[in-house]
């Protein structure tokens, strides 16, 4: 049974485009996570620590080794936005 050679060009193009889009999506996710792999299975504690890191460093995935927080860390808390009932 002969091989339809003219079908290999579209097959190669489709395969290459899936590879290019998958690689681009992976790169975009890594760039948005500061070059780290994505997080899965986050609980409330992880989300709280991500919010704290966002307020301290400006990035959800960033952390600092310096123990002193920036000046605006004292005033950008989330507590004043929550109502106590």
Polypeptide structure, described:
By secondary structure, the protein is mostly helical. It is built from two helices and no strands. The termini are far apart.
Summarize this structure briefly.
With 85 residues, the protein is mainly α. The protein contains 2 helices and no strands. It has helices at residues 8-32, 44-57.
C-alpha Rg, in Å?
23 Å
Helix content: 40-55%
Q: List low-confidence stretches.
A: none
Strand content: under 5%
Counted by DSSP, the helix tally is: 2
General shape: rod-shaped
Q: Residue-averaged pLDDT, rounded?
A: 82
Q: What profile does the largest beta sheet have?
A: none
According to DSSP, the number of beta strands is 0
Report the structural category.
mainly alpha
- Summarize the helix and strand pattern as letters: HH
Report the span from N to C terminus: 77 Å
Protein name: NADH dehydrogenase [ubiquinone] 1 alpha subcomplex subunit 1
GO cellular component, one term: mitochondrial inner membrane
Family: Belongs to the complex I NDUFA1 subunit family.
Subcellular location: Mitochondrion inner membrane
Keyword list:
single chain, 85 residues, mainly alpha, 2 helices, 46% helix, rod-shaped
Topology:
Blueprint: H1 8-32, H2 44-57
């Amino acid at each position: 049974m002969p091989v339809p050679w003219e079908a290999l060009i579209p097959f190669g193009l489709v395969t290459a485009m899936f590879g290019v889009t998958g690689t681009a999506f992976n790169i975009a996710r890594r760039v948005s996570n500061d070059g780290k792999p994505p997080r899965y299975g986050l609980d409330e504690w992880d989300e709280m620590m991500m919010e704290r890191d966002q307020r301290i460093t400006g990035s959800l995935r960033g952390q600092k080794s310096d123990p002193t927080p920036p000046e605006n860390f004292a005033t950008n808390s989330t507590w004043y936005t929550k109502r106590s009932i």
